[in-house]
Specification:
With 273 residues, the chain is an alpha+beta fold. The chain has one domain: Sandwich (Jelly Rolls). It is built from nine helices and ten strands.
């Protein structure tokens, strides 16, 4: 399956494309079955909320989960991504972001590409995120906020912020934090919202978003009784290889540059089951 030319234009204009109900409930169940093990495991790619009770993020699940590794090659994802980036692609990063009921904290306003540019030497923003809802996302459980069209301004330079407490994990030398290094200031965000507006895509589990790495986004805390977990796959063009590939760990900047070969849908389903 590929996206239409009209959808491609929408992505280019707004910096995102939302596809509600893209995966079935049965497919979502396959993905969610992987979460208890990933959340319980000791990993240098895991971030806890500041209270230390709830999982906030897990990076690198494609290295430990065959289901998520094969998901990155699912034809319903890989073929549209290759069309968006107009090239072959590889998996640059994979993470699970969780907002536990009554406990999921905020992610500040930011852009993604500035991290990959400054930390990894990615030459351009010729990359894209795929966000898959593993829970129903509503207005109460911390939906992602986006400023549509803001990606057209490119990278917004921002001072390095104090990232706050590091992950409580002896295997992690401070690569990850529960706070963002390149968060945008309030004035910058207010100005862009006045120009472009603000949206919060909501939909059932299985919905999917394609997002440009320069779109400004954030998410509020989750004070509802509903969990909100998403899987985020970042693809990079094989023509856009970072120049500092030995700096950050593999789970943040993958050095496996093997081009993704799409798996037929029936092949993915059979293997997952």
């Amino acid at each position: 399956m590929s996206i239409t030319d009209e959808q491609l234009r929408e992505y280019g204009d707004r910096g995102l494309l939302f596809l509600p109900g893209y995966f079935s409930a049965a497919e979502v169940d396959i993905m969610k079955a992987e979460l208890p093990h990933l959340f319980a495991a000791t990993s240098s790619g895991k971030i806890m909320e500041d209270g230390g009770r709830d999982v906030r993020s897990v990076y690198g699940a494609q290295f430990t989960s065959k289901t998520f590794q094969r998901l990155t090659r699912h034809a319903r994802i890989a073929e549209p991504i290759m069309k968006i980036l107009d090239s072959q692609v590889y998996v640059y990063q994979f993470k699970i972001n969780a907002k536990a009921a009554f406990g999921g904290d905020i992610w500040e306003w930011h852009q993604d590409y500035i991290y990959w540019q400054k930390e990894d030497g990615m030459p351009s923003a010729r990359a894209s995120n795929v966000i898959i809802f593993l829970d129903d996302v509503n207005e109460f459980n911390g939906p992602l906020f986006f400023i549509p069209g803001s990606h057209k301004e490119g990278v917004i330079e921002t001072p390095v912020c104090d990232p706050g407490p590091e992950v409580s994990n002896e295997n992690n030398p401070g690569w990850l934090s529960s706070r963002l290094k390149y968060a945008l200031d309030r004035g910058t965000v207010a100005q862009r919202i006045a120009t472009y507006g603000i949206i919060a895509p909501k939909g059932p589990a299985g919905s999917m978003l394609f997002t440009h790495p320069n779109i400004i986004h954030c998410s509020p805390s989750n004070m509802s009784p509903f969990d909100r977990v998403v899987a985020i796959i970042t693809y990079n063009s094989v023509e856009n290889i970072p120049t500092q590939t030995n700096q950050r760990p593999e789970f943040l900047s993958s050095r496996d540059l093997t081009p993704v070969v799409p798996l037929p849908e029936d092949s993915w389903a059979k293997a997952a089951y």
